[in-house]
Amino acid sequence: QVQLVExxxxxxxxxxxxxxxxxxxxxxxxxxxxxWYRQAPGxxxxxxxxxxxxxxxxxxxxxxxxxxxxxxxxxxxxxLQMNSLKPEDTAVYYCNARVRVYGYSREGDYxxxxxxxxxxx
Length: 121
Known about the structure:
Number of strands: 11
Structural class: mainly beta
Largest sheet: 7 strands, mixed
Order of helices and strands: EEEEEEEEEEE
Strand content: over 45%
Radius of gyration: 14 Å
């Protein structure tokens, strides 16, 4: 019912920047929070940043001051601006959205397919 598609990943040198985008589509009534998660090799998936429809953004300690999450509600799109990238930021980044779907009374979490971010030394 809802599809999330990420883009913007790639290979970048340490200290560089990338901007990830994620657009939600489908039978969307409303979207509450949108966020970014990542999963590095050998590690569990972790929350990177989240932005509610209204409210304060939240970031993992490891990315505070370097990453900025934003959203364009008219486009159902969330962005993650990643600056001062470090090799430890290398991971597959997944978009997440909490969505209320037409014809479904409860909100549900939806995930994108992931986009690879690789930061070289």
